[in-house]
Design a protein that fits this description.
By secondary structure, the protein is of the alpha+beta class. It folds into two domains: about 50 residues, no CATH class; about 160 residues, Rossmann fold (3-Layer(aba) Sandwich), CATH 3.40.50.1820. About 15% of the residues lie in helices and about 35% in strands. The strands form three sheets. Strands 6-7-9-8-10-11 form a six-stranded mixed beta sheet, with helices on both faces. The protein has a five-stranded antiparallel beta sheet with strand order 1-2-3-4-5, with no helix packed on it. The chain has a two-stranded antiparallel sheet with strand order 12-13. Helix 2 packs across helix 3.
Length: about 230
């Protein structure tokens, strides 16, 4: 997260995060123990309090899978030849199977996301990939372009670019031995719920779509979370 416009004077502290269009303005306590203020984003605001701690708290995330996994995990590189970039990802494949297994490409939501969609210690795509692979499904998840180990620029990308990235992942999974090319689908979360149908419209061979927290109304001239405009 890149901060911009940092201000600090007479106890007043403010900063902006341009990538998400957010601004924080607050006041530092006299003893320096906490910073209280408001976070403003997208026309709304919420109170936010930062407290000084002696040490970082240990976050318990019991839903995270623990190694060793009962399946194969592989670091992979997906080529988006049209954009000339490499996307870094993780492929998990069931160890025990008869014949070729189905597969799915996970597509992240708004904002710069890594392959696990990590936020505040949660890693929902890691948890989801673990569950699906245990059910006999090969799962591909990648860092967004310009995020983690992936190349390219996130800030300048449009929904069309993210659609092409999703298609690159789909084509990669089709070429993997042990994966049934006729049983590969797309799973999109949040903005990924918009990207997945756009990608499927260009690939009739997409076997299925799963949309998690996608839009439920027509999208026309609306602001998208990654900072681009969708025009219907």
């Amino acid at each position: 997260m890149a901060l911009a416009g940092m201000t600090n004077g007479e106890g007043a502290v403010g900063f902006a995060v341009a990538s998400v269009g957010g601004v924080f303005a607050g006041k530092l306590a006299e003893d320096g123990s906490e910073l209280a203020g408001e976070w403003s984003q997208g026309g709304g605001s919420v109170p936010v309090v930062f407290k000084r701690l002696a040490k970082a708290p240990k976050l318990g995330r019991p839903q995270d899978p623990a190694k060793p996994y009962p399946y194969r995990e592989e670091e992979v590189v997906v080529l988006n030849l049209e954009a000339g970039i490499q996307l870094a990802g993780t492929l998990t494949v069931p160890s025990k199977r008869t014949g070729r297994c189905p597969g799915v490409v996970l597509i992240t939501g708004s904002g710069p996301q890594d392959r696990d969609e990590a936020i505040m210690g949660h890693r929902p795509f890691l948890v989801l990939a673990d569950y699906l692979t245990r059910q006999g499904i090969a799962v591909l998840r990648c860092d967004d372009r310009g995020v983690g180990k992936s190349k390219g620029s996130f800030a300048s990308a449009t929904h069309e670019d993210f659609t092409r990235d999703a298609l690159a992942g789909f084509d990669y999974l089709k070429g993997r031995p042990g994966v049934d090319p006729k049983r590969i689908g797309l799973l999109g979360h949040s903005e990924g719920g918009l990207i997945a149908p756009l990608a499927a419209a260009q690939r009739p061979e997409v076997a299925f779509l799963v949309l998690i927290a996608g839009v439920g109304v027509p999208v026309r001239n609306c602001w998208c979370g990654k900072g681009r405009i969708f025009r219907g």
